Amino acid sequence: MIGTSDLLTIGLLVVLEGLLSADNALVIAVMVLGLPKRQHQAALHYGLVGAFIFRVVATLLAVYLIRVGWVKLLGGLYL
User: What is the pTM of this model?
Assistant: First the structure.
C-alpha cells in the first residue's frame, strides 16, 4: 500500500523534475542566442531532444546502480 510519505516523495520528485526541465530549457535558449537566427530552431530542437535522452539514460543508470550493493556501500561511506 502506498503511504502518505510515498506520495509526498513522488510529488516532490515531480516538482524537482519540472524545475530542472525549466532550467534546462532556459540554459539551452541562452546558448542558442549566439547562433544566427536561421539556426535557432534546429539548435533548440537538438538541445531539448538531447537533454531528454540524457535524462532518460541517467535515470536508467541510477535505477541500475541502486541495485548494485557495493555502489550503495560506497555512497553510504561517502555520506
Answer: 0.62
The C-alpha atoms of residue 47 and residue 45 are separated, in whole angstroms, by: 5
User: What 8-state DSSP symbol labels residue 48?
Assistant: H
Grid cell digits, residue 3: 503511504
Which of 20, 17, 16, 46 lies closest to 31 in space, CA to CA?
A: 46
Report how far apart the first and last C-alpha atoms of the chain are (Å, whole number): 30
Q: At what angle do helices 4-32 and 40-66 cross, to 10 degrees?
A: 150
> 9-60, pLDDT tens digit by residue?
889 988 988 888 888 888 888 888 888 989 988 988 888 888 889 888 998 9
